[in-house]
Write a structure and sequence with these properties.
Strand content: 25-35%
Distance between the termini: 20 Å
Number of strands: 8
Largest sheet: 4 strands, mixed
Number of helices: 3
Shape: globular
Strand order of the largest sheet: 1-4-3-2
Length: 140
Amino acid sequence: MSLLRNIDHINLTVTDFQESARWYEQAFGFVIVEEAVTDGVLWGILRAADSMLCLYEAPDFTLLDRHQLAERKLHGMAHFGLRISDPEKWQRIAREMGIEILYGGTYRWPHSDSWYIKDPTGYEIEIVHWDKEQVSFDPL
């Protein structure tokens, strides 16, 4: 049995805290559960079910996407994934919000569908819906 239960949170710097918090709320139902200013930096924790994001406002920072990181031979995060339970609702919200679906639309994996998007700062997010609401892999 693994000691690890799940990933607790993802910590991100964002261009605009309020804009990002609104976007994550509208797109996925995240709500601000903690917010403060520390050393002059606005930050907060957003929560949706058991998923949490910790956002730190850094308007002067530049984000390098996974392609720019690769060009410079730098390590970094390609994307993070958010699991959804209702793909039709997700696609409706994405249309209503004008969220661009990257890479030509829905990507079919062996046991799931994915949509790749970017948040207001430019972080790439993989939205995942597993078949039968069950994480499944083919036997090795």
